[in-house]
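Researcher: I'm comparing several assemblies side by side, and this is the next one on my list. It has 897 residues spread over two chains. Same procedure as the others: predict the full complex and return the structure.
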Amino acid sequence: MLTVCPYFHVHQPYRVKKYRVFDIGEDTEYFNDASGTDLDNRFIVEKVAEKSYRPTNKVLKELLDKHPEFRFNLSFSGTVLDQFEAYAPDVLESFQELVATGRVEILADTYHHSLAFFYSVPEFKRQVQKHERRIKQLFGVKPRVFRNTELSYRNDLAKWCEDNGYLGIMAEGWEKYLGWRSPNYLYHPPGCSKIKVLLKNYKLSDDIAFRFGNKEWSDWPLSADTYADWIHAYHGDGQTVNLFMDYESFGEHQWEDTGIFEFLKVVPEMILRHPDTSFKTATETVTSYDAAGEYDVPDILTWADTERDLTAWIGNDIQRDAIAATYRMEESVMKTRKRDLIETWRKLQTSDHFYYMCTKWSNDGDVHAYFSPYKSPYDAYITFMNALSDLKLRVDHVVAAKEAVAAAKADQLAGEAKPPQPQLDPPPVAPPEPPTSPAAVLPQSPSLGLARTLWNRLKKIFPAALPQRKST
Amino acid sequence: MDAVGLSAFVVIVRLCAMKVLTFSWEYPPAKNGGLGVACFGLTRELLHEGVAVTLVLPKTQETRGDARVLFADTERLVRMGENADLMFGPYNQAATTVESIIGYDATGRPIYQSRTILQEAHRFAHQAAIIAQMESFDVIHAHDWTSYLAGVAAKIASGKQLVLHVHATSFDQAASDNVDPSIFKIEKEAFELADKVVTVSEYTRNIVVNKHGIDAAKVQVVHNGCDAEPVRELPPTLVELKRQGKKIVLYHGRISIQKGVDYFVRAARRVVDQDPDVIFVISGWGDMMTQVIDQVGSMGLSEHVRFAGALWEEDRDRMYQSADLFVMPSVSEPFGLVPLEALQHGTASVISKQSGVAEVLTHALKVDFWDVDEMANQILSALRYPVIRQQMVAEGRLQMLGMSWQIAARKIKQLYQNLLQYATS
């Protein structure tokens, strides 16, 4: 028995618009570019919907209708779901229809497509939970198998997933850790007893995702027939062929004119033609097979580049500076308890922002090696840091105001707790001050004491923002 | 030996002892701009590559390096050939009827000044024809418009192939299409007569192809190199300002319309409005000096802009090392060596997109010279986030290792070889 477990990853970030130093403190909207360029999030989602999401979902639905054995997995970032809801609700509906067949599994993920696990596990956990709630709300299902941003993986992530009830986790099937072994079996992470790792067969996955339309490739043009033969060749040496790729491979990375849709339309049939070959979802896969051995990954492993690491995201100084500055804000952001500030901070955690700052290949002058809506990695960094600076300003204001309230409350409590002093003489009567502020015109009362203290503290923090006393 | 074998043999002999007669207007150690630096770097590396360079300069001067040098003001014993005067026919008229614009005054009126450069260029050409008859060489290489006539004259006198090397054009100098007609005429006619035109950037190649109308197949880009030598750490300058916590933004170069210093001053206004702790240092001298000083005064920037005069050698290097950021705001810059010099001294740059160096240096902030807001944004951001400067310096220095004069010289040598092969076949 050989089964195929395809998984398509759907994601769009919220790109930060051109945001200059002069905008700090002036403009709180970072993601609302409407220029019809690659910084315009609505424009991109509409464009990719037309080129990829709509035609691909149509093909996938037909395949599910035609082949009862056909199954696959999807993973969504929360940021793409939010953008579908806002900009292309029909696309969201078409995904819901796919999931409603019961043969399309949704994987667990971080809501904001972030690298939070490697910077703050508590924040990571909050994002995973938020993602789970969103998936439940939109699709009515609960993910059982986890995949992390850019397929990033490490032993401790697997342990975290096991501790949090996941049955499986996905990772790159990389020789460095596999050795002579095949990626076409399940493995178990060291120190784990239940969870199993599904390994990407990167050769067969990348044949579609990267090489399909490449005319320089020796196997171009790739027919569904040939591809199915390559899969069938694993009979007798493997249980599951895991094909992991970006959903946007269909129609966006590989354009329609490469024949990618024709390929997708027939490839399941070609695969099923061989007896004893079928499809399984991720959960079905991990519950059907036993682990063949241990997959020990002490350092971060991803599906990116020939290095299979995070250097495209955190490989240079500006990337590390930007991501460190982002996570340094965690404590104060969470302290605000303001939904919009927390959400904006999380949108800035999306890994794409750091990817745009990559300078890995820029020395070769190959600036197009990496896709980016910014003119250079440095433009990306400046834009990001300016937006982050503005957010920090807003967060600091809210935190300072909250602290002022807390301190005022403390003062008030301390005042009330004081034992009443015996009044020997009536207090000296001060000449009545001219009414100067709304608080001052009201009659004195104990409950007003708190308001006054607060008012005075706020004045110290925001001398310019509050209404000034008018001199009479 | 058959005919093919013989001609191949001739080619090999010629290549083994390739001799080049090079004309340049400037050469170190005389204090001048990028032209002299580029000629020196290229000549030095061509000598290393086994090309025998004979350098011809217009006036007697001290020279650096190992090249054999001739000076065109030395009295020649050989008289000019009888028809020598005819060689310069096309340019005599230009010299007598056209004045040259060397800059613009504060009100924007062109400053017509001495035709001495034009006259000098013609005198240089006369001498070049004589030298070309005396010397033995395989190919002629002339740098920039002041030497183009000399190159053309040498070509006519010797019948050898001519390479013209474009370090700048009249369009760069004018910073517009309002070019000096006499220089344009020399450029265009010389380009047409040349066997090959070398430009220091794609940016300049586009000008030569589109504005001078030269056949694109004849124009080849050889980017300038840069000497990545270990830099000596010098005692800092502007110490008092630094002690006060001021950040230093440096301009270094000629103060002329081409260099965009007026845009730099406008960006300074925008920067200082946001951050009063920034000091702009303008190092250099030029025909736009008075205008820029007036502009600084009228924009209320006197406290924030310092004029350092023209700095050379160690003074310049100290300034590079002490600055927090360098800006090259050129309106039109064929190459632009200064950001690379700044980089060597550990200072990152904001550079104009209208420059050749922007094609080869990835690790700099790039801006359209007219986009004053964006220039100010980049300056403020670079000062605000020090990591971006660190990274541009660290990675930029690595990138500079790939921009050596040796690489440029090898391309030039290959170009000579191609020319000579065509000549013998």
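Model: For your comparison table: The two ends of chain B are 16 Å apart (CA to CA).
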